[in-house]
Amino acid sequence: MDKRVLRERMRRKKRQMMIRHYTKIGLSVLGLILAIVFVVRGIIIPIAHHVAGGGSSNQTVQAQADTEEVQANSDAAVRQPLKGKSDTDKISTMTAGWHEDTNGKWYQNADGTYFANGFQDIDGVTYSFDENGYIQTGWVTKGVKDYYFNDDGSYDPSQVRPMLALTFDDGPGQYTDELLDCLEANNAHATFFMLGQNVSAYPDAPKRMLELGCEIGSHSWDHTQLTTIDLDSVAKQFSDTDDALTQACGQAATVARAPYGDGNTDIYNTVNKPFFMWSLDTEDWKLMDADADYNAVMNGDLTDGTIILMHDIHEPSVQAAIRLIPDLIARGYKLVTVSEMAEAKNVTLQNACYVDFWPSTLSNGGVPGYQGGADAAASTDSTDGTTDSSDSSDGNSDYSDGSEDGSTDDSSSDGNYDDGSGDYSDDSSEDYSDDSVDYGDDSEY
Ligand code: ZN
User: Fold this and answer.
1) What average pLDDT score do residues 130-156 get?
2) Which of 136, 391, 408, 424 has its CA 20 to 30 A from that of 87?
3) What is the structure's pLDDT at 7?
4) Which of 146, 169, 375, 398 is catalytic?
């Protein structure tokens, strides 16, 4: 009996020791496995990644973007993992700061990441990094604006690329496609204020305009002078045109222009779109000559923020446009739609009438929905607003002084609604509705 109990106890003890022994082994193995996983995931994979991945993996890895470093600004550069072809060397050296290789200059942070694909302030200077992490020089386009970076990569805020908004009325027509070819070839945008009645004849035109980044505008259904009809009829002019546009390109007009430039606040609110006049009238419909049209633009007042009026239903106008589009770009202008212009100038478009986005007009409060901000600086730069020094200073939609206007040395500069009898004497940019205004029997606007 005693022996049996003793043996039983011995057996139990042995079993307990065995269990303890195996538990120990199990825990050790588990620990070893965890250690291996840690080493592989934490050290080997990253190194292998750096060595093997090189430049090609740069774009895919964004996880390391340091949230503290990435500014609220969407233009801000993101931090990318180690850069370059010889990443093995980089791992061993790991020097923070500027680096240069055959592709250009790039910047390595202390943690080994580098900046890519955006703007980044380094030591108080703003740089632009391309998608591969190299600094960019010259003009860099971000959104609707262009920014200039010097040869050393530093941002130069004094360089402002002036913007022009080419607008074409009364189409689409048989020459519109040729004009679109030119815009496409030059990577330029324009706004088309179309007549609803012409859209069904050229349904491909609005579609292509959208594809090219151009803007779809409405110029009423049949060019009726809106101040001569009741507001219900005004609404129908634009809703019918929107229906035709939607059928053609899947989208209604985002902006509008009144035939003959003749609208008023009631009309803007009824149509419920921002309306656009122009600050440079080529009078192409009257000239009907490509050279004259071309000169009207090239010799006109091309102040940053100018809206140019042309008509793509006339062959000379389109021929002139095909010449002046590349020439304006060569002169340093950026050709944008009216909405792009508004966005670039920090203007939230409203159901109002816009004539131009000149710095002077912005700073004088002549642009409804102007938010100030970054562009306020740009506009206050040009202090000529107060000194009236014969350039664009008198832009502020003041068409009253057409004759004594300081800037009209070069004729067609601004305020050319005046065909003699026209009276735009009020300062408000909103009211061109004066019924006595006679746009001439040409009635082409
Ligand atoms: Zn028109």
Assistant:
1) 93
2) 136
3) 76
4) 169
pLDDT in tens, 190-241: 999 999 999 999 999 999 999 999 999 999 999 999 999 999 999 999 999 9
- CB neighbourhood size of 443 (10 A): 12
Give, as residue ranges, everything with CB less than 5 Å from ion ligand 1: 169-170, 445
pLDDT of residue 74: 57
Give the residue from 153, 109, 116 showing the smallest Cα distance to 132.
Answer: 116
Catalytic site includes residue 189: no
Give the distance (Å) from ligand 1 centre to CA of residue 175: 16
Distance from the alpha carbon of residue 263 to the mean position of ligand 1, in angstroms: 13
- The per-residue pLDDT for range 48-81, each reduced to its tens digit, is 443 333 333 333 233 333 333 333 445 788 887 7
- pTM of the predicted protein model: 0.67
Tokens standing for 16? 């307990």
Q: How many angstroms separate the alpha carbon of residue 285 from the centre of ligand 1?
A: 10
